[in-house]
Amino acid sequence: MGESLLLEPSLAQTLAVSATKTSKLSLSTSTQRSLAAWIKDNIRKKECCFYVDGDSKGICKCGYQRIHHVDDSIKPENYLGETWDRHRHVHEVPTDAYGDIWFGGLGQKIGKYARVSADTSPDLLYQLLTEQWKLPPPNLFISVTGGAKNFYMKPHLTALFRRGLIKVAQTTGAWIITGGTHAGVMKHVGQAVREYVLSSGSMEGQIVAIGVATWGAIHNRRPLVHLEGRFPAHYSLDMQSQGHLSCLDNNHSHFLLVDDGTHGCYGVEIELRSRLERLISQQPLGNRESGVRIPVVCVVLNGGPGTLSTIYGAMLNRTPCVILEGSGRLADVVAHVAGLPVTKVTLSVIHQLMKRFFGPEYDSFTELKIIEWTKKIQDIIRMPQLLTVFRMSEDNHGDVDVAILQALLKANRSSESVGMERWERQLELAVAWNRVDIAKTDIFTEDSQWKSSDLHQAMFSALLGHKPQFVRLLLENGVCLREFLGDQTTLCDLYTQLPTSCFFLRRLAKRIQTEKSRRSQTLSSRGAAGRTISLTHVSDEIRHLLGSFTQPLYPLPGLHSTRYPKEPKEDVAVTLPPKEQLELQASPDPDRGPGRDSERGEETFRDPGGDLFLWAILQNQKELAEIAWEQSRDCTSAALAASKILKKLAEEGAEEEDEAEEMRELAKHYERHAIGVFNECHCCDEERAQRLLIRISSSWGQTTCLRLALEADDKSFVAHSGVQALLTQIWCGELAADNPLWRVLLCMLFFPLIYTGFLGFRRDESIQREAERSAELLTMESLTGSQACTRRKYPVHDLPARNPLGLKPLTVSTRLVSLFTSPYPIQVKFYWNILSYFSFLLLFSVVLMIDFQTTPSWREGLLYVWLISLVCEEVRQLFHDPDGFGFRKKADMYINDMWNILDFLSILLFIIGLAFRLTTRLFYAGKVILCIDFIIFCLRLMAIFIISKTLGPKIIIVRRMMLDMFFFMFLLSIWVVAYGVAKQGILIHNEDRLDWIVRGVIYEPYLIIFGNMPSNIDNALFDIKACSVNGTESQKPKCPILNEDKMPAFPEWLTIILLCVYLLFANILLLNLLIAIFNYTFQEVQDNTDTIWKFQRYELIKEYHSRPAAPPPLILLSHIFLFIRRIVLQRPPNSYRAFKERLPEVEEEELLSWESFMKDNYLLSCRQQQSQSMEQRTTDTADKVCTITELLQREEATGSVALVKRLTRLEEQVSQSARALQWIMDTLKAQGLHSKEEAPQLASPGKLKRSESEPNEPHRQEKTEREKTFYHVNARRLDYPDSTVPRFPVLEEKVPWEVDFILYNPPVLNGDSQDQTDGSEPDSVKRYRNPGGRTGMKGRGALTCLGPNLILDPVLTRWRDSERSALEFLAVWDQEDGLWTLPGGPVQSDEPLPDRLLRIMGQKIYDRIKTKVVEVTKVHEGYVDDVRNTDDAWVETTVLNIHLDRRSLLMADINRMAENTVGCVELVRWTEVSSRTRMCSYQRDALRRVAELHQRTF
User: Fold this and answer.
1) Going by C-beta distance under 8 Å and a sequence separation of 6 or more, which residues neighbour residue 1287?
2) Per-residue pLDDT averaged across 506-524, rounded?
3) Could you give the percent of the chain with pLDDT greater than 90?
């Protein structure tokens, strides 16, 4: 739990800043300088340093003109008199061509390029691609090769290739590498990239297409040259004047231009490209070291002899190849023979195919070259696991992308991995490619048996890669989240490797930085320690998002042991001491936090699905979160917690409004999930559903569903009928919910009525229901004769007992206690408080109107006492914190409540008014303040009536309209002030009395709105007696400006116009606007008032639930009691289970299992609704139409090909039938049987076949017999080991010595020297001849002598155990070949065992094994197909089986020796005798014979 993982410093620096945006193609200035410096230090080019005239004057042997050579190369002193040599007279200098390349035109035309030497290390090139050019490492490397010249492909095949290539590159994150020029197969790749860019319209997820071309063969390359780089270089395609050179393809994204110092020579890049591909194939796949390397695949279109060599070399390096049939030339040749037996691929067949597909080019091929190509094709089809042919006429591959990926998986199945290791590597590849379809069809098959632990690495990769479809697939195929997250390090790894764009990760980094700054002294002593992220940090940050009322999800290490339960059973037991179990069951405190549990050493079980769900939610990953939520157990709490966290993140952390809106939508989504699951639960069992609401969830911070919903402001959830039923039950307490209000009020005043049955009680109703149910069951039993088993039900708040069958009727005392004693029922307490408040207002009004004396009367004194009780209650509410929010949060919640603000304001005004009225001078002012305060106290009545179902929603509407009215008053004030100032200025001259200014500017214009028309703007109504001329009379307004006739001089027409305009806007426009606003608010709020009212109802119920039973002013006695209890006696507060309850563990597990079952029902109904929705049906129909259209197009394109094949097969069948009939007739004639009529003439194909076969019938039979004979394969490999001398190509049909092979002219090799190449043989060699046939090499080669070279292979075997469950043999690991081998080798003439066994075992064990030689069994003796064999020297072996007793001392010594070889070059291990063991062919055959000897299945 306490383990924390170390972050890389670079990552830690990235965490505190925002996510890096998508990198732009044009580099910044600083990046350009950095790239230029790196390239100058590491990348070289080649140039000629010795000018020698070639065939043309002025042109050097290197192909460049004289002017392109430096002065020192014209007459170099070091090379005078030498003949020009490419290897000696070309040297490396810093490159001068790199940067960005821009092709112009529409679409994305900006790429990167660099001129590199042909001898550049591939490590530097990979570093250039990934670190300098910022390419992410590929998940797949696609090498596209084939025809370098333009060729024709059928349109449908072209479309399939382009679409498939882009799809596989886009979905897997692959790199595509080609020759980079604008011709042939490279042009097809470029067009595919261009189509993708134009169709996507976005640069995100661009296709990486790397062109590796020859610098000296590029046309128009001068603009690319600059010592400081070109950013960008402007390159133009000039196809007309390129001549024998080639232009770069304008759709590739990156170019490596390989330079060997020559000009006009093609093929310079082949070797460097091969080394780069080999290096990339050795790089690890993904972020974690899982042993899986980046897969490489070769895709072949068209092509010639050079392409054949490329395919041959790739397959020897274990690189799978995909051939596109129909692309022409070599691709079609290989495609036509693929799948045939090697014996069918003869020289004549290749001749025919070459002539057919190469056309006129075939005439230029020599016989020796065709023999060599035939040998390579035979070797290629001998490796079917590496060869895949894509045929449009077949549906097994689908598209090209599926064929490419299936080819890689097929090659992986035949690789060195065996068993589950092979399947795991294939799964890692599928996850890296994000191809669920491939995983479903080729990996998760019936043959594969998966354990959860086998899928953990793939699960981790899928989670980090945000691949929800793979996560779901892995869960469906056996991943157990409990095992996957059983190690807390895995969960910590997931949080550590969150993407840097994640806001939660940046908050974690900020928290860690804060902790580090607090402990700066400790850090300084540690030096450059990295920053750590632990689950403790995660827990603290999640608690901040959820709220301080929760407990840490992952407590501190050592304080609380957190683990996952082993089995998801309904009854899970936690080992506790008996005393602690009793305390757990009998404790009255439902708020017991994890701190108390941890002090007692209790273990907390975590929900792995909830942990994964939380991890996904914090990243705003909707699909991953949905999958994890489906796996979580406490799903309702999880959904509500997610709603709270997402709303908090949207409020605090979203840098972009779109991201914040996504978080809010996701929060609403999980609120709907919570409502859906709870609705299923409520419909099934109301009582269980209510227990689900108030159950303390240990997985989500020791809080409840109800509390989470309130904190998340999930009004719709709280408004659910099930939640409201719980609140109603708490509100009514022991009283029945259907009691009329007037009955409750009567019983409150005349309590003896409760003994008459005037009020209903819940317990009485429960007893009556159980009695009726029991009677029904007894009746059913009497009728059916069977016994019915009843399930125990119990209400949520039955405190005395939890078994409803054992409930006792309420007694006289308990009925009275249930009516008046806190906390039950809340409604009685509420009604007493209403009566108390009305009494307070009545007393307040009497004091203000009747009894407000200079000396306070007894009524006023009672009013003061009453107010003191209200003040004490407000203080108690402020400090009462049953949910553990903390004072700061509690104070914030108190202030944010409008009713609390009214309470505070009313109390404050009362105190101010009281202080004023106690003084003589401010006595009246104090009364005025108290009168105003009375208004506020009356407004406070609205909060009391919120509980009313009728008045509550209306009060909410009034509150919203008041807010609207404030905005309206702002607009109205603009017009009022504007008109008032203008009117005052026109009518009155220099009014200096402030009260009359306010009256004229604000008061009078405001009254005009309500119809009080002014008299001073119209001369007809002017009365000079009603005003003061000079403004000296304080009770009269100042007269307007007068003329000589003592009449107003203002322009009457203007004032009337201003009044009309003012009334038009104020009365008509603004008032109607206010009406419209009110109407809109009413319509908007009316739909949600019921929900809002139900949501606010909880707070009122919660307030009165915790309130003392006595109403004010008697509540002062309760406050005094609480003060003595809490402060003086320091006793803990009483806590009740109405809103929070801790269930026993077995009961809680049963409740969660039931909730999970309800969740499954809810998800099933959601899926059914989604599948039946119109949108889903439209989508399914569109998919089906697209599929049918594609099938029709493919059928149209492949129909002719299929027809030709069918006709060809039909012709072959007719020909075979004709030959069979001819044979029957010949046989009958030979037996002397004759017919009356002449034999009919057979079909021409039959005659033709017969005429061709009759003369050579004996030869054909001999050939058939030879086809059944095994021919050596390894001994005919073209590349001889540890030698540059290639073998002469020996075809399959030319292996036997009896077959004539006129052109056969093998080289002679003895040791490391090539002695003869003319085919002549010395006399000492002529007497030796390889019994396996021709090998393509003469002499002894790498063997020690001519003729047979004898070796001995001892097979040391034992039984694995006493039951003989498996037979094992002693194997030695050959690190160079990657194979298990037998400890055999050459034998000295005087020794019975090989020297290698002595070297491996040691002298002591060797001597003891030698004594067992007399007990050995000879298993096999004969010829070995070894790569070192020649025509004159070969290897022969003798395989011996030495079976050892597993209980002998010799076996113990061998076991100790094997243990000592761990980590050595030659690892020795006991291995099961099985066909799955990776060994060379002849040793595997020897093991098979050993297994037969011991009667074991191989």
Assistant:
1) 1276, 1277, 1278, 1279, 1280, 1306, 1307, 1335, 1336, 1337
2) 68
3) 10
Phi and psi at residue 1268, in whole multiples of 5°? -80, -10
**pLDDT tier, 1390 (very low <50, low <70, confident <90, very high otherwise):** low
The DSSP element (H or E) to which 373 belongs, if any, is: helix 367-381
Q: How distant is the alpha carbon of residue 331 from its chain centre?
A: 39
Residue 1141 is classified by DSSP as B
Q: Dump pLDDT digits (tens) for 548-567.
A: 888 888 866 544 444 555 44
DSSP tag of 82: P
Q: How far apart (Å, rounded) are the C-alpha atoms in residues 1187 and 453?
A: 38
Q: Give the per-residue pLDDT at 790.
A: 41
Q: What is the CA radius of gyration of the chain?
A: 47
For 1369, which DSSP code? E
Q: Is the pTM of this model over 0.90?
A: no
- Rounded to whole angstroms, the Cα distance separating 884 from 1143 reads 20
- Rounded (5°) CA angle 389-390-396: 105
Backbone dihedral region for residue 303 (phi beyond 0: left; psi -120 to 50: alpha; all else: beta): left
Under 8 Å between Cβ of 862 and 840: no
pLDDT range class, residue 1394, cuts 50, 70, 90 = confident
Handedness of CA 916, 917, 923, 924 (dihedral sign): positive
Decide if 115 contacts 289 (C-beta within 8 A): no
Is 211 in contact with 253 (CB distance < 8 Å)? no
Extract the tokens encoding 887.
Answer: 């004072």
Task: Give 348-390 pLDDT, tens digit per residue.
Answer: 999 989 998 888 888 889 999 999 999 999 999 988 888 999 8
981 with 1001: CB under 8 angstroms?
Answer: yes
Q: How many CA atoms lie within 13 A of 1353 on its CB side?
A: 25
In angstroms, how far apart are the furthest CA atoms of the chain? 162
- Residue 415 carries which side chain, given as an amino acid letter? S
SS3 (DSSP) at 328:
coil
CA–CA dist 494, 480 (Å, integer): 17
Q: How far is CA 779 from CA 768, 776, 793, in A?
A: 16, 5, 21
Q: What is the C-alpha separation between 616 and 627, in angstroms, rounded? A: 10
**Band of residue 228 on the pLDDT scale cut at 50, 70, 90:** confident
Q: How far is CA 1442 from CA 193, 1413, 1417, in A?
A: 62, 7, 7
Cis amide bond preceding 1394, omega within 30: no
**Torsion (CA) 812, 817, 818, 823 in degrees, nearest 10:** -170
Decide: residue 81, CB within 10 A, 0-12 exposed, 13-18 middle, 19+ buried: exposed
Residue 1086 to residues 384, 581, 898, 952: CA-CA distances in angstroms?
73, 51, 21, 12
Residue 418 clears pLDDT 60, i.e. is over it = no
**pLDDT mean across residues, the chain:** 78
State both tokens at 1066.
């104020």
Q: Is the dihedral of CA 138, 143, 148, 149 positive or negative?
A: negative
Residues 333, 345 contacting (CB under 8 angstroms): no
Cα separations in angstroms, 777 against 771, 780, 784, 807: 10, 5, 10, 19
What is the pLDDT, as a whole number, of residue 671?
92
Answer whether 1355's CB lies under 8 Å from 1491's CB: no
The token duo for 1438 is 């003798």
Pinpoint the alpha helices (H) of 805-857.
812-820, 826-849
Average pLDDT rounded to a whole number, residues 1354-1363? 87
425 membership: H or E segment, kind and range = helix 419-433
> Are 1279 and 1286 contacting, i.e. CB atoms less than 8 angstroms apart?
yes
Asked if the peptide bond before residue 232 counts as cis, ω within 30 degrees of 0, the response is: yes
SS3 at position 1131: coil
Q: How many residues does the chain have?
A: 1498
pLDDT confidence of residue 1020: 67
Q: How far apart are CA 23 and CA 135, in angstroms?
A: 10
